[in-house]
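Q: Please design a sequence for this.
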């Protein structure tokens, strides 16, 4: 496990303990088994972004506090220059960069996602709210339930995020902007 993921796992456990919740209580709120939730705290691997959003809502904190340990401070506007976003490698072959991590009380989460080509099937993700994906570079296959949509640079899709979904790069690495609104 990367040092970054170890830190996220440690923060998950610390915030849960500070908030006086048991692992069983949090698992129940997330609709997960206690063993699965404890894997997130102990290993920090493959934590779905939807789970991180749900946890931030449960604890009443910004999702970036879970990812970075720091609270956003800006509330008028947030400028993030090229190369200054906060990145997180959560899954093998995926890199997420928070594009508005300095802005507090966000009602949406804009992310730059880089995905490497991978033929392995990944478990679909679900979370509350809605999601928008805009392909910046390469080709991305967006899986929405039983549908497979192939998007090229300049294409976009907007969907109900409770629908099981995932993204795969087709051919070579691809980049897309994901905007998640709860």
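A: Design:
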């Amino acid at each position: 496990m990367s040092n970054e993921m170890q830190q996220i796992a440690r923060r998950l456990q610390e915030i849960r303990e500070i908030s006086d919740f048991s692992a069983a209580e949090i698992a129940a709120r997330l609709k997960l088994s206690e063993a699965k939730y404890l894997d997130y705290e102990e290993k920090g691997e493959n934590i779905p972004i939807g789970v991180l959003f749900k946890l931030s809502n449960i604890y009443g904190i910004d999702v970036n506090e879970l990812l970075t340990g720091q609270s956003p401070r800006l509330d008028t506007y947030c400028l993030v220059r090229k190369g200054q976003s906060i990145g997180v490698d959560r899954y093998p072959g995926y890199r997420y960069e928070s594009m508005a991590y300095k802005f507090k009380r966000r009602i949406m989460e804009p992310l730059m996602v880089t995905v490497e080509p991978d033929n392995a099937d990944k478990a679909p993700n679900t979370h509350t709210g809605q999601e928008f994906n805009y392909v910046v570079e390469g080709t991305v296959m967006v899986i929405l339930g039983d549908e497979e949509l192939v998007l090229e640079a300049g294409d976009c899709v907007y969907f109900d995020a409770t629908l099981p979904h995932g993204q795969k790069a087709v051919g070579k690495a691809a980049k897309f902007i994901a905007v998640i609104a709860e």
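Q: Thanks. Anything notable?
A: The radius of gyration is 16 Å. The CA atoms of residues 46 and 92 lie 8 Å apart.
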